[in-house]
Amino acid sequence: LCEFDSTNGTCPTINISYEGDVSSPAISGNRILWSVRHAHPNLFYCEYDNGSCPQQTLVSNVSDWFYTNPDISENYAVWLSTNPVGSDRRDDLEPGQIYLYDFNEQVMVPITENKTALGPKISGNTIVWADNRTSLDFQIFYCVYDPETQTCPNQPIISDVSNVTNQESPDISGSRVVWAQDFYDVDNDVNLRDLFWYDFENSRLVSS
């Protein structure tokens, strides 16, 4: 981590993790979140203040669960918990369950029930991810977390999937979501990928 000093053009660095094997750092404001991939990963965070960022444990290893793909926005953190039975792989592409942590209320809330999710991202209190709960292909799901009820009803962005192929790698900023989507190029007999984005404010879907 470094904090840019505009007066002299320098950015002195500080080491905020001494665990080694750090994966997927994410930042929002002065709060930093990351996964440490030892035999089974833990999740850590720190709150930067005046040149220091003391490391704190957010989630520690439970049994054979793996904690990967963390993301953070304001007072909420999300991550993927996987439990690959019969495997010791530390694979970020292993589908799992999504959890949310509310720093204000200091509670951890399950966002999905089944081990079918990938790549959670969060902006404000809106979470997006890829999910294959309904078919072999992945589909982009989202939910809006309600801190009062501690619920986040899951729903797909595109409800009619009759002509939708595999959707992956979502990201979100404000009201807009982007993702990659497979399609078949009939003329050249090849599978390709296109980029789509969706705006929640006007329910508009656009392809690149």
Features:
single chain, 16 strands, four-stranded antiparallel β-sheet, mainly beta
Question: What helical percentage do the residues reach?
Answer: under 10%
- The quaternary state of the protein chains shown equals single chain
Number of strands: 16
Overall mean pLDDT stands at 85
The helix tally amounts to: 0
Structural class: mainly beta
The general outline is globular
> Strand order across the biggest sheet?
1-2-3-4
Radius of gyration: 19 Å
Q: Which range does the strand content fall in?
A: over 45%
Order of helices and strands: EEEEEEEEEEEEEEEE
Characterize the biggest β-sheet: 4 strands, antiparallel
Quote the distance from N terminus to C terminus: 34 Å
Give the low-pLDDT segments. Answer: none
Describe it for me?
- This protein is an all-beta fold.
- The chain is built from no helices and 16 strands.
- The chain has strands spanning 22-28, 31-36, 42-47, 56-59, 66-73, 76-82, 97-102, 107-110, 117-123, 126-131, 139-144, 155-156, 167-173, 176-185, 190-199, 204-207.
- The strands form 4 sheets. A 4-stranded antiparallel β-sheet has the order 1-2-3-4, with no helix packed on it. It has a 4-stranded antiparallel β-sheet with strand order 5-6-7-8, with no helix packed on it. Strands 9-10-11-12 form a 4-stranded antiparallel β-sheet, with no helix packed on it.
